[in-house]
Amino acid sequence: MIALFWDIDGTLLTTAKAGVPAWETAVLELTGRPFALSSIRVPGLTDYQIAVRTLEMLEVPVEPELVERLVRRYESLLPSTLPSRLGRVLPNVREILDHLRPRTDVRSYLLTGNTRAGAAAKLTHYDLLRYFPDGAFAEDTRERATIAARGLALARERGLPTSAPTFVIGDTPHDIHCANAIGARTIAVATGGYSSDELSAHAPWRVFEELPAVEAFTHLVLHPETVSSQA
User: Fold this and answer.
1) Could you report the per-residue pLDDT of 120-171, keeping only the tens digit for each?
2) b/e per residue, 56-76, with b = 16+ CB within 10 A?
3) What is the pLDDT of residue 44?
4) 138 with 33: CB under 8 angstroms?
5) What is the C-alpha to C-alpha distance for residues 45 and 56, in angstroms, rounded to an integer?
6) Alpha-carbon distance 111 to 113, whole Å?
7) Which of 28, 111, 202, 217 lies deepest, with the highest CB count within 10 Å?
8) What pLDDT, on a 0 to 100 scale, did the predictor assign at position 6?
9) Which helix (H) or strand (E) holds 57?
10) How confident is the model at residue 159, as a pLDDT?
């Protein structure tokens, strides 16, 4: 059995920044202060980490209750802002997921800095939720590697053998660090907020400008030993 852990934003899809108005509205409502999300390099950060940085930049005390309220309000606004932008599923994603879905030897899970509700809103809007039985999500302000650990534990509970190949598919250095934390191979894609050169600097197992086509991707995960020495 093989486990694939998928990031969402910049890997599976782009919302074309549809989450920005939801976040900025939530911040204004709860702090009374305007905030430009563009002032933070968001890709790879969890929703909770974004909340902490937002409050720090506004010089508002980072109280756990306020962080939680900010994240929850963002979640509630997100479904209404997603249709406001022309986002899309990224190249080869749906084809790969359709191809892998019937297989019993490959299982796909989410490994994302989104909260569970935020992830569900995005994947529902882009009709991708049905491909993922479960996953690991942001639950607090801790590092993203803790999400990876929960994701691996979930896969183990679902029958993933200890020696089974595992892959993290993502678009940021944070995803690469997640993979390293759980001993997984990273398939990095430059379809999000980082270039292939920036990703390569963190030594992922493989890096691509975009996800390979179905046949190439399937070969990559089913026969990693045949490609592990390639640049």
Assistant:
1) 999 999 999 999 999 999 999 999 999 999 999 999 999 999 999 999 999 9
2) eeeebeeeeebbeebbebbbe
3) 87
4) no
5) 15
6) 7
7) 111
8) 98
9) helix 47-57
10) 95
